Amino acid sequence: xxxxxxxxxxxxxxxxxxxxxxxxxxxxxxxxxxxxxxxxxxxxxxxxxxxxxxxxxxxxxxxxxxxxxxxxxxxxxxxxxxxxxxxxxxxxxxxxxxxxxxxxxxxxxxxxxxxxxxxxxxxxxxxxxxxxxxxxxxxxxxxxxxxxxxxxxxxxxxxxxxxxxxxxxxxxxxxxxxxxxxxxxxxxxxxxxxxxxxxxxxxxxxxxxxxxxxxxxxxxxxxxxxxxxxxxxxxxxxxxxxxxxxxxxxxxxxxxxxxxxxxxxxxxxxxxxxxxxxxxxxxxxxxxxxxxxxxxxxxxxxxxxxxxxxxxxxxxxxxxxxxxxxxxxxxxxxxxxxxxxxxxxxxxxxxxxxxx
Length: 356
Ligand code: NAD
Ligand code: ZN
Known about the structure:
It is a single chain. The protein is of the alpha/beta class. Helices cover 44% and strands 20% of the residues. The protein is built from 13 helices and eleven strands. It has helices at 24-29, 45-56, 79-91, 106-118, 134-137, 175-192, 194-203, 212-232, 247-257, 264-283, 290-298, 311-320, 347-355, and strands at 3-6, 11-17, 39-44, 66-70, 99-104, 124-129, 142-147, 150-157, 162-166, 328-336, 339-346. The strands form three sheets. The protein has a seven-stranded mixed β-sheet. A two-stranded antiparallel sheet has the order 7-8. Helix 6 (175-192) runs parallel beside helix 10 (264-283). The longest helix has 21 residues, at 212-232. The protein is globular. The termini are far apart. The structure holds nicotinamide-adenine-dinucleotide and zinc ion.
């Protein structure tokens, strides 16, 4: 494998390469101590149209998976869809020795992972991420669904048995989705590895034309950083909070403009740009961030807060964020690139900078 990730319960391999979807069956079985009794593929409908036949072709006739398709989009991370997957798993005879395979982006991975985490008290599952953003969601073991009261409120820690990342499947990803996932790559650079930012600037100049070897390297570098952080802090008491860089304001903007009107990463990019300015203001950090913000603009990010977002509404949403307390809002700021710190920031300080 390209990488091996340690979780509390087990180690799991991450395979990153071109065209490994054609070897899905063998890669999964190299990983299992006993042969699986049955396989269930949970696939995003869009993704299935492109790649399902190819993934299925790797399975011998006697071991063909049962396939369950889910409509694409965040609206599939619901109790209804979760219930439907459980029912289909039961009706198709999945047992404790069966394996669920998530073929799709973060939505599919979270939903299928949560189904696997709870089906018969937990069965094994494999992530086959097909978006760039899913490099973030497919490692770390967080799975879950949404509730009417908020996103990702119902979930479980359940690390996968393996991650099979076929970079060739990213070829069909729309440009906004590239931008969404790439913001998380940049985030990993900001919180952990300035050299990654230099590498990105030198190697990735156009998100619609990235050579395959560069995609592989990009995925590997960014997953390595995420893996280090979650290995240190699997259940989010300390350093894992740094992954929230850019997300405090980012989540508020995303919710304020309405999910589906802006991608997650595009909102996080605005949040990162704001957090950099806040870091200079409150910590006196010297971050020389203009070059990297200019680079992000050349990739098509708009780093302005959308005109429809009222500043006081953004504050209300930040306050509601589960990571905040009293009149202060927990913010991930940077001392320097690669040196994050969790800081309690007053609402007045945030509002003042928003107003500028
Ligand atoms: P997504 O799964 O909705 O995929 C985005 C869109 O791209 C969808 O329309 C999908 O049909 C399409 N698509 C996917 N792969 C494609 C391909 N190869 N070619 C063409 N189209 C393709 O969204 P996402 O951005 O991958 O993930 C977002 C989700 O991830 C959110 O629900 C978020 O909460 C979750 N998430 C989870 C974690 C975690 O740690 N578990 C971390 C970050 C995000
Ligand atoms: Zn994110």
